[in-house]
Amino acid sequence: MEHALILTTTIMMTLLFFVVGGIVGWLANRHYLETSPSFIHPEFMDEDGNIIPDEILAVRFENDYDDYNEEDDD
Predict the structure, then answer these.
(1) What is the pLDDT of residues 1-60, one digit of tens each?
(2) Cα 66 to the chain's mean position, in Å?
(3) CA 22 – CA 18 distance, rounded (Å)
(4) Neighbours of 47 (CB within 10 A)
(5) Phi, psi angle pair for 45, to nearest 5°
(6) I need a labelling partner for 10 at 20 to 30 A (CA). Which of 29, 37, 49, 53 fits?
(7) pLDDT given at position 62
(8) Which of 13-16's residues contact partners 24+ apart within 8 Å by CB, and which partners?
(9) What is the C-alpha to C-alpha distance for residues 66 and 29, in angstroms, rounded to an integer?
């Protein structure tokens, strides 16, 4: 009987700590995301510190270098 009480208490406390930790972590993450400044590269800003909307260029590089699969034409 004593083992069942210890096992039940342990399981309930584990679940309680898991739920409370998840809620506190979620709230802390939301607070961090809302209060932290967003870091932007200086080249995206004009002299006054405003973002330049029409000067931003996005480039995507894809690595298609399959040199190791080339066949020799000898």
Answers:
(1) 899 999 999 999 999 999 999 999 999 999 998 887 677 778 778 888 787 877 667 788
(2) 31
(3) 6
(4) 5
(5) -120, 155
(6) 29
(7) 78
(8) none
(9) 41
**DSSP letter string over 1-70?**
-HHHHHHHHHHHHHHHHHHHHHHHHHHHHHHHHHHSPPP--GGGB-TTS-B-SSS-----------GGGP
Residue with tokens 């870091």: 39
Which amino acid, 50?
N
| Residue found by looking up tokens 């210890």 in the block | 6
Contact predicate 52/58, CB 8 Å: no
Q: Retrieve residue 14's tokens.
A: 């584990």
Q: CA angle at residue 52 from 48 to 58, to 5 degrees? A: 145
At 55, phi and psi to the nearest 5? -105, 0
